[in-house]
Each structure stands twice: as C-alpha cells, then as structure tokens.
Design goal:
The protein is of the alpha+beta class. Helices cover about 35% and strands about 30% of the residues.
Length: about 100
C-alpha cells in the first residue's frame, strides 16, 4: 500500500525560511521517489480554521514515507523551519 505524508500548516512566520526549507525538503522527497500531490495552491476551508498551506506527498509504500521523514536529508530540512512554522505532520498508510 502507498504511504502519504500530510502536512497542514497552522501558521508560518518566515516565508524566507519556508523557501529555504522547501528546497532541501524537495531534494529529500526526490531521493525517496516521492510525488507531490498537493503543495500549497488555492484552497477553501469548509470546516474548521483555514490553513495557510497544506502539502501531501505520495510514496510507493508506508515504509518509504516513514523512511523519508526519518532521513538525515529531511531532518536537516525540517530543522530550518524550527521556530518559524507550526504544523501538523503525519505519515499515513493509503488504501
């Protein structure tokens, strides 16, 4: 079964740090052969609070998605956002 990384941002306080993070994170996604399904874009909040950004990445398996998150490459990218973004980040098995 495929694996997905779903990241829903609650707030972003530094757009420049987000851009720096995105470059490094994209390289990690590519290394683990992930595919961006959603990366920002227009959105409508039907229930709950509106998120400034949502990202969904598809991987060939749940284990690949978990390994991506735990990788040195992604953890380096992740550290760039520390203190500049609040978000919910999940790894989910598909159906």
């Amino acid at each position: 079964m495929k694996g997905y990384v779903v990241c829903v941002y609650k707030n972003i306080t530094n757009e420049e740090k987000l851009k720096e993070y995105a470059i490094k994170a994209r390289a990690a996604v590519e290394k683990f052969k992930g595919k961006f399904l959603i990366r920002g874009g227009r959105s409508t909040s039907n229930e709950g609070e509106k998120s400034p950004r949502t990202v969904v990445i598809e991987f060939s398996s749940y284990d690949d998605a978990k390994n991506f998150y735990k990788s040195i490459e992604y953890q380096h990218a992740h550290s760039i956002l520390k203190g500049y973004a609040d978000r919910q980040h999940q790894t989910i098995e598909g159906v």
